Amino acid sequence: MSKRKTIWRWWAKAIGEKASKDDKESDVVASVRTIIFLTYLITNCFIIAGVIRHWNGPKRLAEIDQRNQTEYLRRGSHREVSCLHREQVPIGND
Fold it and tell me: Which long-range contacts does 6-11 make (Cβ < 8 Å, 24+ apart)?
């Protein structure tokens, strides 16, 4: 048996029991299981990358929110302010 076939047999056994007594059918099932495994692996990599990218996110969001508030006040359109920021942002000369 060639080295490639041996590695394939080990991989097929690692992802689950043999699906049937027919080797060709078992190879097809092992291929489908491999595709499912790869999609899980790729999805998890994207999830981890997103978590790493947004690490310490609330601090960064607070900085962006502060810049937005400053720009909002600079434009002079501060008569209507959301309920979340009423204590922090002056309403104007009403």
Answer: none
Q: How would you write the pLDDT of the chain (94 residues) with one tens digit per residue?
A: 788 889 988 888 898 888 888 889 999 999 999 999 999 999 999 999 999 887 776 666 667 777 777 777 777 655 555 555 555 555 555 5
Task: Check if the beta carbon of residue 32 is closer than 8 Å to that of residue 14.
Answer: no
Q: Helices 23-53 and 3-14 sit at what angle, rounded to 10 degrees?
A: 70
Look up residue 3 and give its amino acid.
K
> What tokens appear for 19 in the block?
């699906």
pTM above 0.70, yes or no: no
Could you count the other beta carbons within 10 Å of the beta carbon of residue 31? 13
End-to-end CA distance of the chain: 88
